[in-house]
Amino acid sequence: MAKGGDVRVTITLECTSCTRDSVEKKYPGVSRYTTQKNRRNTPIRPELRKFCPYCYKHTIHGEMKK
To answer: What is the pTM of this model?
Structure first.
C-alpha cells in the first residue's frame, strides 16, 4: 500500500521562447506538452528540449505554474 499522497504528478511544459507577456497566457500559438514527474526524485521545475510547432525548431520547454 502506498503511503501519503501521489508521488507522480502530471505537469504541463510550455515553450519559453514563444510566450508573450500576458496575464492569461492561454491563447493559440503557445506550444504545450503534458508529462509526469516524480515529486521525490525531481523537486525542482524541469526544463526539456521539445519541438515547438509555432517556432519550427527545438526549444526549451519549462514547467509552468498551476
So the answer is: 0.74
